[in-house]
Amino acid sequence: MDKVITSFNKRPDALARLICFPWAGGGSIHYARWAKTLNNSIEVYSVRLPGREGRAKEPFFQNMQEIVYEVICVILPQLKEKPFALFGHSFGAMTCFAFAEHVNKVYNLEPIHMFLSGASAPYSEARLQAPRKSHLSDQEFLVWVTYIGGTPPEILANAELAKLFLPALKADLCVAENYRCSRPSTPVLSCPVLCFDGKEDAPHDLQAWKDMTNGDVTVQMLPGSNFYLKEEANEKYILDHITKHLETAEMDYL
Q1: What DSSP state is assigned to residue 84?
Q2: Which of 20, 127, 183, 187 is the S-S candidate for 123 at Cβ 3.0 to 4.6 Å?
Q3: CATH code, 207
Q4: Is the pLDDT of residue 252 over 70?
Q5: Does the structure show a pLDDT above 80 at 251?
């Protein structure tokens, strides 16, 4: 499991687990650090995909199904063990939903809460009609990555470092762009969903998430653009809300 899941603070007595999926091109360390901030009742599992960190030599996944199947294979026993919640930003939000939909359909398991950030619902026209980025030339792609922010400038300015980082980002974007989900006739989930987004980011169809679940869907807009969640104040706000909602859900579960 350690190959796929980064967990800095093992908490066998935790009441719930927060499973975090990376943004496009991202690793597992950013979310794994959240374990140091969240209280002892929450254990953090941060997903590490192939092609980065300790899996740098492994080939990238080609589709969403490969990601979902691998993660389920390594943590299915833990999913059955205690309540779990999901968090994902942008590409990670898509992965959260694909994961939740699959474990619900196949194993009759469901998160107690989903926290989604910076992403339209998977079936929404806003997402399906967005320009594809994975097909840009290397130079055009570098300009776009610089524009959206979130990547240290020293990486983008160094040709060798950029050559290591950009392929993972392109591979994940290709997976996201090819992921298709039809608007459900009935919601596929029943858990509550909390959507975060940056006020200065490109608009996302957050309301469309209401078609995916019978649970409450709420939206919290925070200052910043695409990587608003990396700002210290925003990150604290997000973690405080995650803690509050999971503590409430834990009491209901007990």
Answers
A1: E
A2: 183
A3: 3.40.50.1820
A4: no
A5: no
